[in-house]
Amino acid sequence: MDLKLIDNKGTNTLEQLIKENVTSDSKISIQTAAFSIFAFNALQKELKRSKELRVILTKSFFEREETGFLKRYEIAQSEEDISGNHYEIKLRNKMDTAFIAREIAKLITEKVKIHQLNSNQNALDELLVENNKEPEKNIIVPSMFKFTSDGLGITESNNVSSMTGIIGAEDHLKLLKADFDQVWSDPKKSKDATEKVLEKVRTIYQENSPEWIYFVSLYHIFHDKLEELDEQDIAPDGSGFKDSVIWNKLYQFQKDGVMGLIRKLEKYNGAILADSVGLGKTFSALAVIKYYELQRKRVLVLAPKRLRDNWTVYTTPDKRNILNDDYFNYTVLNHTDLSRYRGMSGEIKLDTFLWSDFDLVVIDESHNFRNNDTNVNRETKTRYERLMDDIIKAGRRTKVLMLSATPVNNRMKDLKNQIGFITEGDTTALADYGIKDIDTELRLAQKSFNDWMELEENERTTQKFLDSVNPGYFKLLDMLTIARSRKHIEKYYDTDSLGDFPERLKPITVKSDIDATGKFPPLQDVYDKVGGLTMAMYQPLQYVLPAKRKYYEDLYDTKVQGGKSAFKQADREQALAKLIQANLFKRLESSIYSFGLTIERMVDESKSILQKAKSRNIDNSRFKSISDFDDEELDSAFEDSSVGKKTKILIGDMDLIRWSQDLEEDLEVLEWLKDASAKVTANKDAKLLDLKKLLRAKYGHPINGNNKKVIIFTAFADTANYLYEHLASIVKARHGLNSALITGGAKSNQSTMPGVNVSDMNDILTNFSPISKGRDQINPDATEEIDLLIATDTISEGQNLQDADYLVNYDIHWNPVRVIQRFGRIDRIGSRNARIQLVNFWPNVDLDTYLNLEQRVKGRMVMLNTAATGEDDLLNIQENREMNDLKYRKQQLQQLQNEVIDLEDVSGTISITDMTFNDFKADLQNALKDREKDLNEAPLGMFAVASSRELPEAEPGVILVLKQATEDIGKENGILPYIVIYMRSDGSVKLNYMYAKQVLDYFKKLSLGHKDINQPLVDDFYRQTDGGKDMSSYSELLSSAIEAIRGKRDEVGIASMFSPGGTSVQTELVDDLEDIELISFLIIR
To answer: Where in this chain does the entry annotate a coiled-coil region (predicted)?
Structure first.
């Protein structure tokens, strides 16, 4: 008997010992917890020559405990696998695993018998080689034996202990073999597993469909996101969450979104829900609130004032509260309450309100907080600062959930300010998750967007932007946002259980004249007259004598940028004047009545000021200021005759002659416009007559059964009142239908339906849309309904009015997003209407005239705004920056004339839904429902063959799915530690690892839906590779890919030295094949 210490170094390996001692007389018995096809392959010649080979597996390879998705994945990955372990990566990366597996399957079928030790038994690893004819060649390797490449010494491992090999020892071998035989033959101790092992080996070499390899790849890449999909892990049975009323009212896509939001809130302390219009963000948020309330957490909801009732209704014992049994107890305040320090908001006393005492803040319409005007010296905090300082940073650690109605963002700073709520303003807060500096990522993304906007119209595609934007931006959005589009929901969820979205009929476009008799002056003449107004009465500081200007500058100018610059009050007045001019154009577009009313007010005010100037009594006159208005209030700012702050100017300081001359010149034009407008009475109003014609057609020929419900939107309360005055009585008398008017103020709302509380907007909406608003639970005896609703944009967001099937935009907003949001009131999932109709009234001028007009008026405002503040939008005029590219806006408006578009499909915009990995996770989630066990057991190194002809932009080559051994490098890759790279057949890179989403897009388009194997392609592949034996061309592509990854990392490291927040050049790089693990690959032919 000889003893030999085997250290698996050089030639002193177990592989060598077996090769030297196995003969045709050898009976080999193995007990092992680990074995791989690579070990079989290395000893294939010797094993075929042996007389007998039996293997007892001491660890289960086939059964796994029931746990959560992520745990099951982790257990599967931690186990030794027959397709190779961590130390066999180099062998698997030769990409001939399938060929080896096929050979080993033959070997097992012909020679090998395998048993599995029963779960209640334990046994030590051992190798026994019995040679009866040559007993001196007997081998015993006790206790430390693994039948893998590293166990045999073929590849290196981290094992520093030597094995003991016993050579000869015939008597000792017989004793050990008797024990082995006893375990083998006793069914209570082991059972046959040969066929099960063969099944696993076959999965390695079986031909796979492209779709299956796509799913396997996603399973690995997004395994750490599996917890987001696991409802049981977040809300286990017994927690009460799944028993809540709100949870059981959600659609599955909403439930998935809620689970994702809770995960993000727990992991990152915040999340943004930016689902598209009409996908029920309020209910999703209510479910998140319920989750935290069940944990006894305090919740604050901040909502726009007009949407407050949408939230408070669920906190009170109210007939309208369909969630009453959930006993919601959150607090609701208005956005505007952040600017108040005393008084009451509902039943809450603001003087003593404890803002800092909340665990979760939900911000509805969070895009209203996109601006953070910290550059301006103010005596009080902005709403943004108050929210940040007094709620989020103060007191207990506060999680933030934001609901954004617009998943489209062209100005990255808007997003930065919202993310700031999550990170408490710390731009490095996500460094541990691969985002070293949020500002840097958003700055780079903004540059990419600006460059993209400079492209020619036909080149400015979403894909072009996605190809150029920094991957960190993808990662940032994927971490913090849930953003699903209508198309996403239709594609990934069962619409049978959801209810379909209604079919959108082609929009009806109406271009009405002003005067049915044709006597109103040509529009171009009116535009020229309005554009030529000096607007002297709105900018008195322009007429202060030069010697006196310094005094008024000191008094009224606003310091910005920490006092480095000033925003001049004179410029502010000039900007206001331009805004009012633009407002006149919009009013003329809206209705001749609204335009005439405004002109009449201006005439009266001009006369009043001229009279005061002549009487030298001007020091107490009020001049309008824009500084106190939000975006949503600008349209109605001019309707009130005395708004804003006083700008007092002493009479002796003014050039009264010049001012009076300009006032009189304007008055002459205004009186001409007033006279022309007054002649167009309601019976001559061509636009109103066209609207009446449309309503008659709608009522005479409804598009869904007998549904006669119509919503008419207008930007102006004056127009809304005018329409109600001239439609309500006619609709009641001729069609027997009730009408209602909502303009935002309680006094101005009206209805012809008896018993409606017009001071309660929600009562009007409930009677207009009784099904969607659940009126039968509130007032089951009600029989009458409202069928015509005339409204301003007060209800353009946050309302479900899907009982209606016909929506009229009586005036087109310059921003198409507003038009789409309006339509979202009826274009909603689960609608009872099969079809819905959008009607758009357009000015009867060509689009170029329309846009150039607006640009000319507002251009000066933009310059005034940016000159003082750099990039902060001090005036809060959203439209300013949206009009920078006329071609971009023209294309959007042309789209609206021809089709109803989704918000994320507006031409020339980039949607958050384009930026996340949500579609891939949804594909994986669907695959998990039926194939989780198969995915869990899928071996590494599998591949499929796809055709490049399936996708015109695809090229022959290979998409490689890799995993890097070092996880703390390459964080510019959004799916770390995984790498996906698309290599062309010639060894060049089509898409490098930094563009993970784009590579996955190719993978998806080439694979999803391709459930069958393309046999001619596969046969051709086997002919080229000698049945998969010669994979050298593909392993060379893998080597080239690693070279490309290394080169790109060098480039990124160097570039980061020159970017703000950047780091030094990375020193740890992918050096060779062993630093990269091949997960799967798609061959494209």
So the answer is: 876-906
Residues 6+ apart with CB under 8 A from 208: 942, 943, 944, 1013
For residues 229-242, give the mean pLDDT: 72
Element (H, E) at 208: none
Is residue 674 within 8 Å of residue 712, measured between CB atoms? no
- The Cα 450–Cα 466 span in angstroms is 13
3-state SS, one letter per residue, for 907-926: CCCCEHHHCCCHHHHHHHHH
| Torsion 714-720-726-727 (CA) sign | positive
- Residues 6 or more apart whose CB falls under 8 angstroms from that of 665 comprise 534
Which amino acid appears at position 741 of this protein? L
- Kindly report the average pLDDT of the chain as a whole number: 81
Specify whether the backbone of 874 is left (phi greater than 0), alpha (psi in -120 to 50) or beta: alpha
Distance, in Å, from the CA atom of 565 to the CA atom of 559, rounded to the nearest integer, reads 6
Highest mean pLDDT among 153-167, 563-577, 684-698, 870-884: 684-698
Q: What is residue 989's three-state secondary structure?
A: strand
pLDDT digits (tens, 9 = 90+) for 726-762: 999 999 999 999 999 999 754 589 999 999 999 888 8
What's the pLDDT tens digit per position in 360-372? 999 998 877 765 5
Question: For strand 750-751 and strand 738-742, is the pairing parallel, antiparallel, or unpaired?
Answer: antiparallel
Over the Cα atoms of the chain, what is R_g? 37
Token digits of residue 34: 């680990």
Cis before 816? omega within 30 = no
Q: How far is Cα 1043 from Cα 1035, in angstroms, rounded to an integer?
A: 12
What single-letter DSSP state applies at residue 794? G
DSSP code string of 768-780: HSTTTTTHHHH-T
225-427+481-498 carries CATH number 3.10.20.310: no
Say how far apart CA 838 and CA 902 lie, in whole Å.
13
Q: What count of residues does the chain have?
A: 1085
Residue 841, both tokens: 């009234």
Contacts of 375 (CB under 8 A, 6+ apart): 560, 561, 562, 869, 870, 872, 874
The dihedrals phi and psi of 231, each to the nearest 5 degrees, come to -60, -40
pLDDT tens digits for range 629-668: 344 443 444 343 322 235 677 767 788 889 899 999 999 9
CA distance 762 to 773: 9
| Residue written as token pair 């392959």 | 41
* Same CATH fold assignment for domains 2-205 and 699-842: no
Q: What residue type is assigned to position 951 of the chain? A: L
Structure confidence at residue 73 as a pLDDT band (50, 70, 90)? low
Residue 152 tokens read as 């045999």
How far, rounded to the nearest angstrom, does the alpha carbon of residue 919 sit from its chain's CA centroid?
10
- Residue 760 CA to residue 310 CA, distance in Å, equals 12
Rounded CA separation 200/933 (Å):
13
SS3 681: coil
Of 927, 987, 915, 931, the C-alpha closest to 956 is: 987
CA distance 606 to 599: 10
pLDDT at 859 over 50: no
Q: Are 210 and 946 in contact (CB under 8 A)?
A: yes
**At a CB cut-off of 8 Å and minimum separation 6, what does 658 contact?**
543
Locate the domains of the chain by residue range. Answer: 2-205, 225-427+481-498, 519-682, 699-842, 938-1084
Q: Please state which CATH number belongs to domain 699-842.
A: 3.40.50.300
CB count, 10 Å around CB of 136?
12
Task: Give the Cα separation of 688 and 682 in Å (integer).
Answer: 7
Q: How far is CA 495 from CA 246, 350, 704, 934, in A?
A: 20, 46, 20, 27
pLDDT at 1070 over 80: no
d(CA 199, CA 765): 62
